[in-house]
């Protein structure tokens, strides 16, 4: 079973920041938070991951709360191409059993 | 292109047919995976291969038979499938236990069993 809880769907206006929440209250000390997204009929794409510090890369920022029980993925300037299902996954780094939940269906509106 | 290539992209097969799905990666990864994604369901892990050895079989029916001849290639042999096996089959690869950027997925094979 997935160890995370995400809203089923969200909408965001094009050009605005999209903030996707994820709850992972049972996360263990050695588990990382990973984010992937899946654009319609394609394979999932890695976005970002982190342990306890906030992370930023060319795609997104990841904010992890101090108690590590929740996190937020931020797409700073959403475009129509960011419409996808976003998956938040907790996993031990290098563990070979990535378990996907239902994810959040993010729709970017013009 | 992600670096993980799956062929064919689409496949229609009868219940008595035998077919194979192919996955190829040249990312230098040591682990490869098969996932199944049925309509409106989360991705389900089917098989895991690590350095060509199968390390996980997630209670997959025997009509699905994986093969991993080397760390760059992975096959899924299909025979006597059922209509409920229609799904998107995704292949992924990762660097063994080094973590980091996680998995790289292919674009999948859309399978329809008639």
N-to-C span of chain A: 35 Å
Instruction: Specify the biggest β-sheet of chain B.
Output: 7 strands, mixed
Helix content of chain B: under 10%
Largest interface, counted by CB within 8 Å of the partner chain's CB: A-B, 21 and 30 residues
Strands, helices and their partners?
The complex is a heterodimer of chains A (110) and B (114).
Chain A: E1 9-13, E2 18-23, E3 31-38, E4 45-50, E5 55-56, E6 61-64, E7 70-75, E8 84-92, E9 104-109
Parallel strand pairs in A: 1-9
Antiparallel strand pairs in A: 2-7, 3-4, 3-8, 5-6, 6-7, 8-9
Chain B: E1 4-7, E2 10-13, E3 18-25, E4 31-37, E5 44-50, E6 53-57, E7 64-70, E8 73-79, E9 87-94, E10 104-105, E11 109-113
Task: Describe the model.
- The complex is a heterodimer of chains A (110) and B (114).
- Chain A is built from no helices and 9 strands.
- Chain A is mainly β.
- In chain A, the strands form 2 sheets. In chain A, strands 1-9-8-3-4 form a 5-stranded mixed sheet, with no helix packed on it.
- Chain A is globular and about 40 Å long.
- The model of chain A has no long low-confidence stretch (mean pLDDT 92).
- With 114 residues, chain B is mainly beta.
- The radius of gyration of chain B is 13 Å and the shape is globular.
- Classes of the chains: A mainly beta (110), B mainly beta (114).
- The A-B interface holds A 2, 32, 34, 36, 41-46, 49, 93-94, 96-103 and B 2, 4, 31, 33, 42-43, 45, 48, 50, 55-56, 88, 90-92, 94, 96-108, 110.
